[in-house]
What does this fold into?
Amino acid sequence: MTERRRVVPVLMLAFLAVLCLPRAASAWHDRTHVAIAWAAGFDRWYSAAAPDVAKLKYPCGAYEGKNHYSHNSAGEPVTPELVSSQVKQYDRADDLEGHLYGAIIASLAGYRKLEAAGKFADYHLVYCAHYIGDLSMPLHNVPYDAFNKARHHANDGIIESTAFRDAAEIRSRCYTIEIENDDDLSREIARIGEISRQLALKMKREERNMSSREALSQAVHSASLFRAVLLYAGRPLMEEDGLFPGTEKAER
It folds into this structure.
């Protein structure tokens, strides 16, 4: 009984620690993630927030959470080489820096592997959609320092209340990205990661949050990249016309 009493508190402490992870690792709130996936033309857009939900369950948070950010404590520019080096860290809990960039490539590889085997593969694309959404959230590309901690939650929700209404604008502003191989993908991940990192540094210098226009522009980067990834994966896009479901009534 004594040994059992010792084990229970230890497990409880571990569980509580995992519950703390989502706050440090979440990026954009649910509606923003969903709007980005819809704007990209993903037919499972409604599941794009699910990877954050998965982090709630022990031990998922310890493993999944590190896929959602790259803290880059060294303050180095995001390069294709950095992106590629992170792939092997996917779903690992022992990487203190996080490996968002590699998670994008690894989740897409998971999709393609199951798809080639004739198995249900869509959930890998759901994770990929979420990671690409995280890529454009500036504070997921810099150290989780005092500024990041103080501003993170507010910046996650900059366009949350208007995300569904803004989804059509995000879609209309998507730009063309050509991806023919994983080297192209690494280069585009690095490009957007560096844009996001530079915005985070600017926010810190100016001691401010993103503006709603900046947040929308960031979301456009994610939607554009995910659209390119869907095409690279041979995934048909949804129809381009129309507003986000449910917003038609709100507009009347």
